[in-house]
C-alpha cells in the first residue's frame, strides 16, 4: 500500500495466531466492490482515471478518482495471469469521504475505534514519507493506514489469505439462498460470486458496476432479475415447492476444480443454479433460465 499511497497523495494534493480470536475474519468487499470483480465493471464505476501502472512482473494497477474535495481515490490490482479480475481493492482519502462503512470503519475513523473493532495489529510500520502508520494483520487480507491525526486514511483488502476452507461433502442450501434474496441486496451479496452470470431471455446479465451498487440500484438489470417481478430469482425460490423439486449434484470442471449444480424440472422457470467456491464458501456463480 505504501508506494501507491505516497505517489497518489502527491498527485491528489498538487498478530500472532494466538490473537486471531479477537480479529475480524478476512473480507472480500470494500466500498461496494468485490475481490474478483471484472475490470470493465470497475472502470464503468468511475469517471476519472488517475493512474495506470504495469509492474515489472506484469501486474496491472488502476487508480480512480473518488472524491477530489477529500483527496480520495480507489485503487485495484490485477495479477498478470488474470488481468481482467482484481485481487485487491483499496480506498484512501481524508475524513469526510463518502463511502460504505467497512464493518463500521470509514476514512477518518479514530485509531482507538479501529483497534477496538479489528483487534491489535500484528505489526505497525511507520511510513516517514507520508507520516502514516500501516496496520497489518497476520492471516488476514485487510490492512489500514492511520495518519498523524490518529485517523484511518486508507483501507485495503488483498488476496484470499484468511478465508475459511470450503466445506466438503455439503451442498449449498437453497433455503439459505432464498432467505438471503428475500432479505435484500446486502444479504444477497454474500451468496454471489463477483463474476456471477445470469442467462435469461437470450441475454447474459452480470455486474456492470460495483457489485453492491448494482444490487442496491432497483433499475439495474442485476437487481431486476434477482429481486423484482414474478420471474425474479427471489420470487421463484420463495416457493417451497420449487426449492424441494431441485436435484443437486457435484460438478467437476474440465480444467480443474469442483462446484455444485442444482437442476430443476420443466415446471420451474429456472433450469439450473451453479455454485463455485469463493471467499471460503459456496456462492452462486451461474443461473440459467429456461
Domains, number: 2
What's the total count of β strands?
Answer: 16
The CATH homology group name of the largest domain: CAP
Strand content: 25-35%
The separation of the N and C termini measures: 46 Å
Parts with pLDDT < 50 across at least 5 consecutive residues: 9-21
Overall CATH architecture of the largest domain: 3-Layer(aba) Sandwich
Give the overall shape.
elongated
Helix content: 10-25%
Could you state the order of secondary-structure elements as H and E? HEEHEEEEHEEEEHHEEHHHHEEEE
CATH class of the largest domain: Alpha Beta
The strands making up the biggest β-sheet line up spatially as 3-4-5-6-10-9-8-7
Count helical runs. 9
Overall pLDDT confidence? 92
The CATH topology assignment of the largest domain is: Pathogenesis-related Protein p14a
Major beta sheet summary: 8 strands, antiparallel
Structural class: alpha+beta
Rg (CA only): 20 Å
What does the model show?
By secondary structure, the protein is an alpha+beta fold. The chain has two domains: 2-158, CAP (Pathogenesis-related Protein p14a); 174-289, Nuclear Transport Factor 2, Chain: A, CATH 3.10.450. The chain has helices at residues 2-12, 39-43, 111-118, 174-183, 185-189, 211-216, 221-227, 233-238, 240-244; strands at 29-30, 33-34, 49-54, 60-67, 72-78, 88-92, 123-127, 132-136, 142-146, 152-158, 192-200, 203-205, 247-252, 258-263, 270-278, 281-289. It has an eight-stranded antiparallel beta sheet, covered by helices on one side. Strands 12-11-16-15-14-13 form a six-stranded mixed beta sheet, with helices on one face. The protein has a two-stranded antiparallel sheet with strand order 1-2. A hairpin with a 6-residue loop joins strand 14 and strand 15 (270-278). The protein is elongated and about 65 Å long. It starts with a helix and ends with a strand. Mean pLDDT is 92; it is low at 9-21.
Amino acid at each position: 500500500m505504501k508506494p501507491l499511497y505516497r505517489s497518489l497523495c502527491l498527485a491528489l494534493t498538487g498478530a500472532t495466531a494466538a490473537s486471531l480470536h479477537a480479529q475480524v475474519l478476512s473480507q472480500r468487499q470494500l466500498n461496494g466492490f468485490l475481490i474478483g470483480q471484472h475490470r470493465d465493471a470497475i472502470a464503468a464505476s468511475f469517471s476519472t482515471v488517475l493512474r495506470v501502472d504495469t509492474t515489472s512482473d506484469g501486474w496491472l494497477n488502476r487508480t480512480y478518482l473518488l472524491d477530489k474535495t477529500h483527496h480520495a481515490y480507489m485503487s485495484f490490482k490485477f495479477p498478470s495471469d488474470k488481468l481482467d479480475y482484481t485481487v485487491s481493492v483499496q480506498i484512501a482519502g481524508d475524513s469526510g469521504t463518502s463511502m460504505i462503512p467497512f464493518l463500521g470503519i470509514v476514512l477518518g475513523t479514530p485509531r482507538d475505534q479501529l483497534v477496538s473493532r479489528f483487534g491489535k495489529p500484528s505489526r505497525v510500520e511507520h511510513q516517514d514519507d507520508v507520516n502514516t502508520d500501516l496496520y497489518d494483520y497476520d492471516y488476514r487480507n485487510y490492512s489500514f493506514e492511520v495518519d498523524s491525526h490518529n485517523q484511518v486514511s486508507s483501507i485495503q483488502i488483498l488476496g484470499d489469505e484468511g478465508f475459511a476452507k470450503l466445506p466438503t461433502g455439503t451442498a449449498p442450501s437453497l433455503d439459505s439462498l432464498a432467505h438471503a434474496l428475500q432479505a435484500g441486496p446486502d444479504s444477497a451479496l454474500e451468496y454471489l460470486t463477483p463474476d456471477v452470470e445470469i442467462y435469461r431471455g437470450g441475454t447474459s446479465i452480470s455486474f456492470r458496476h460495483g457489485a453492491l451498487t448494482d444490487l442496491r440500484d432497483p433499475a439495474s438489470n442485476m437487481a431486476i432479475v434477482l429481486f423484482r417481478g414474478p420471474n425474479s430469482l427471489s420470487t421463484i425460490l420463495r416457493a417451497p415447492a420449487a426449492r424441494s423439486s431441485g436435484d443437486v449434484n457435484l460438478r467437476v470442471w474440465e480444467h480443474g476444480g469442483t462446484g455444485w449444480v442444482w437442476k430443476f424440472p420443466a415446471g420451474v422457470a429456472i433450469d439450473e443454479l451453479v455454485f463455485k467456491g469463493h471467499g471460503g464458501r459456496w456462492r452462486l456463480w451461474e443461473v440459467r433460465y429456461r
